[in-house]
Write a structure and sequence with these properties.
The protein has a domain of 82 residues. 62% of the residues lie in helices and 0% in strands. The chain contains four helices and no strands. By secondary structure, the chain is mainly α.
Length: 134
């Protein structure tokens, strides 16, 4: 099978999630560790609980801020129009062309990736119609 742009985008999203999550976890672990060390608790268990509480509190604040930014910055109008069109069984209208990939980008191999993997052209899988056995 060929390498397609939408497959490339899916891989890119997964990679960004993994690379973005690692520093976030590191920062939260550092916050929890420093809060644990600075705790004046009488036992180690209480100090650890205090540190993890601070880490989770910071994570919750960041999640709330991200949720608010998402609600404020993403347009709901386009989403509602798409949902209504889907309920009616219609394709997106011409005003929604910016939401669809151009015809040239639909399930065609990505030439940049193919040239990066040695210039070979992998075969494109095209399903064959089933023959009636009657």
């Amino acid at each position: 099978m060929g390498i397609y742009p939408d497959d490339l985008a899916s891989g890119l999203i997964n990679t960004v999630q993994q690379v973005g999550g690692a520093p976030g976890l590191g920062v939260l672990a550092s916050i929890a560790s420093s809060a644990t060390k600075s705790s004046q608790a009488s036992s180690q268990a209480v100090a650890l609980t205090h540190g993890f509480s601070h880490g989770f509190l910071i994570a919750a604040i960041v999640a709330i801020i991200a949720t608010l930014l998402t609600l404020l910055l993403i347009s709901n109008r386009d989403s509602r129009e798409h949902a209504r069109a889907a309920q009616r069984g219609q394709a997106p209208s011409s005003s929604d062309r910016h939401l669809r990939p151009p015809e040239a980008a639909q399930r065609r191999p990505c030439p940049h990736i193919q040239s990066a993997v040695g210039g070979r052209q992998p075969p494109i899988h095209r399903p064959q119609p089933k023959k009636d056995q009657s």
